[in-house]
What does this fold into?
Amino acid sequence: MKYYKRNETRKVNVGGVIIGGGSPITVQSMVNTDKGDWKAAVRQIKELENAGCEIVRISLPDIQTAQDISKIKKRIKIPLVADIHFDYRIAIEAIKQGIDKLRLNPGNIGAKENISAVVEEAKKAHIPIRIGLNAGSLKSIRKINDNFLRAKELVKAAMDNVKIFERHKFYDIVVSLKSSNISITAEAYKIFASKRNYPLHLGITESGSLFSGNIKSAAGLGIMLYDGLGDTIRVSLTANPVEEVKAGYCLLQALGLRNSGIEIISCPTCSRCQVDLINMVCQTEEALSKMKRLKNLSKPIKIAMMGCVVNGPGEAKDADFGIAGTKDGGLLFENGEIIGKVKPKNWVKTILSMISRYQNS
Ligand code: SF4
It folds into this structure.
């Protein structure tokens, strides 16, 4: 949206998906299937693809898991990122296997020579690397009590690595500065953005369960995105990774930064509501989540599902179409005009059939 001034960053190509340089903010997630079960990883990545995930990351705890990368890559459509900790040789094997991007955690990858070795191989393979700082694995940060100083320490660690990369004339860099504390994270990204223009991968790490993690991520990422920071996001949840993708789009859509398809405007209900709106909205969302990504939509759709005629007609008129509850059902609106009446049992069916019309138009 025009009212956000996006921070200007370099473009980085991750297996054909562009991060940064004003490209749409991409939504990422991460595989959580059992180590070594590459077939399960492929199955999960396909579910993530269907949910709209644009870049997916996989943890490679050892060389054997890195050797499965080419098998996974052959069977999926979206770019695959290798998450590497402790052993730089796994990164080098992942590059050999055709990985699209690496995420290195400089807090635990060891000597600078190890980082240099990976950077040189990535350069030859033309793949980017995310310098993925995580406050939890940075020893120097634990001694500091002040959040601002902690943020500065995170940035310092990132910059130490950025400089190693730059000494190799390697600029296909993405940076993340994650912490489970919102103010440290937001401050660290802000400081980093004042120093370099590498694209930023945003996240609030270890943010929690589906409910609390979504709220914490929305608060944290919301602050940074509103400030114009961020080129790609991952909403970290202790939940099915598909939920991370849904949450990512929902968050970007709420901020007007991505139009992922369908936005439902629904009221909180009150004693005036004479239909079972809560259930109807849940059923509609459930049905929508099962529809293969609504890719055929020529433009985003705004749908209003409102409990009564107090705010209902206004919201329904403002939407592409919608229903506002009445005592015997609801009034169906499209483009601001009443086009019919709908019985309560037919609300969900009507909304879905209207969506199909837009899909095919
Ligand atoms: S639209 Fe009607 S039912 Fe919904 S919250 Fe407002 S007054 Fe209550």
Summary: The pocket of iron/sulfur cluster is lined by residues 267-270, 272-273, 306-308, 310-312 (CB under 6 Å). The longest helix spans residues 147-167. Residues 187 and 235 are 18 Å apart (CA to CA). The domain at 262-360 is CATH 3.30.413.10 (Sulfite Reductase Hemoprotein; domain 1).
